[in-house]
Amino acid sequence: MGDKTVRVRADLHHIIKIETAKNGGNVKEVMDKALEEYIRKYLPDKL
């Protein structure tokens, strides 16, 4: 895996942990939201 891939995964994992704790533990919902936010932020032309 490239350096950038590892960083993206670490960032997403961090976001998911925080958001899951905040909203009571719905991991699937949090993951979908985190991915969407990440894509909007870093790959806006892909949506």
Automatic annotation (TrEMBL):
Domain Omega transcriptional repressor: 1-38
A Pfam family annotated for this UniProt entry: Omega_Repress
InterPro entries, alphabetized: Arc_rbn_hlx_hlx, Omega_repress, Ribbon_hlx_hlx
Gene Ontology process terms (BP): regulation of DNA-templated transcription
Protein name: Omega transcriptional repressor domain-containing protein
